[in-house]
Amino acid sequence: MKLSVLDWVIILAYLVASLGIGLYFTKRASSSLSEFFVSGRNLPWWLAGTSMVATTFSADTPLYVTGLVRQHGIYENWQWWCFIMSGMMSVFFFARLWRRLGVLTDVELIALRYSGRSASFLRGFKAIYFSVAIHTIIKAQVILAMAKILDVSVGWGKWESILISSGVTLAYCMLSGYWGVVTTDFFQFIVAMIGAVVLAVASVTRAGGVSAMKSHLSQSTLSFFPPLDGGFFGLTLMAFLGYVGLSWWSKYSSDGGGVIVQRMSSCKDERQSLFATLYFNVANYCLRTWPWILAALASMVLYPVVKDPESVYPQMMVDLLPSGLKGLMLASFFAAFMSSLSTYLNLSSAYFVNDFYRPFLRKDASERHYINVSRLATLALSVLTGFIAYHTTSIIGVFTFLIAFGSGTGLVYITRWFWWRVNAWSELSAMTASTLCTVIVYLHPPLKSLPYYGKLSIIILVSTVVWISVTVLTRPADRATLLQFYKKTKAGGPGWRPIEMLANDPRQGNPLQDSVRAWANGCIFIIGLTIGTGKLILGYPFSGCLWLSIAAVSGWFIYRGLAGMKKVLE
Fold first, then answer.
1. Which of 293, 445, 556, 565 is the most exposed place for a label (fewest CB within 10 A)?
2. pTM above the 0.85 mark?
3. Phi, psi values for residue 225, rounded to 5°
4. In CATH, what is the architecture of 1-87+126-227+269-394?
């Protein structure tokens, strides 16, 4: 694709603006680790929530959604829509708990929740596990998407794309830390959404409009739920049940995850943390879903046969947009890419410095020393990521592998908040079992041929049996640590009854039940809003209004219940 001078001016203006924000916040971010990693815990809910949305909206996401829709239909988006349920757990169970705990990273919880050498080992191990292993895979996935986009749009090779697309992001991330990340996230999200809407309108228009587009597509493709033509035990329905029944609570980020926890922790107070997380879930599923799906459906009409379904999305930019809009669209890809990459670069260095380097290698250095080490860690991890990205080929393959890879740990991460008996060995055994099981089911000949939900079931079952057995057979954290953790978080529930008695702090009512009720209403609200919006856009007014009415009723119950939710952590 040949870009005009106007296109390049738009792209360069965006890149310069991003770098300028990094330079502006450099001095403030350099004052302390708290400023560098959580903005001094002073963010309003709307900025923290927008940063959550921008971070999870990467250059790979529209390509990923396009691949899902082209291969199976709209209903395959339940592969990521299923995380609505864990997202609403973050809102009504964990947002205020994380903010009250006052950590820099989610891994820091280990030092507050557990005790002894096992806790120290677990904290150091997880810091390296996430910063070097998990986050490197995620960043490689993000960079791979941008490389595909730049290959289609400007013809750059893979190494050129990796180096050029990552350069500005690395620069402002190293300079300004989390302040630069969240501030650029705000306008990056706006730019990215404008680009997504522009391409959706252009592609649907070229396909003849929504009605004409629908006439060329099968009912299965347009369905919001999997067809039952294969029976109850058919592969399609079983995969769907695997997503909504297993994936959302078994993933390693089931209680928020590092990216979201970092933003919860950076909010001004617990109330702001809750609202930020609620806003994130509304925008994440109800707002940004449909421009991508519309473009994907239009692509099936305009490009019925393609070699790489994930590359169709940027190809439509090349073929359908005029000069100027091409530059805006490419800038929106950079915006989506940079918002995600900068977050994971910052959080990876936070894990390394806050949870490994400072507690185990250099305990009493100055704040400036730790910030300099954070910048060096960001650079080193970027080099590793670039190497992995060069050897990665499939976005959907990486996404599904990541879900499976950490699927044996999600339940223990939820349970540690509500059962005092969970200890450091519980987490270590869950991580070990999950990793080993994933390797076996993906490499062992009889097992690797199993469908995805089958692999997921084996990993979860074996890992759960292992960590529960280890929990029962090992000693819990010492009572002083548990008592201090309980008093700080007031997580509550039947699982903390012995510690409640020790603290002489009997709870009134059933706050855990209130949270469950709010969670259920929250799931119905987001699902109703997401499906209702899509139904209306695709020309199904009756069912669209029905789903939106369901969302309105559940939203009213949420509004009424927010006052009662104060009891949960008071």
1. 445
2. yes
3. -135, 155
4. Up-down Bundle (1.20)
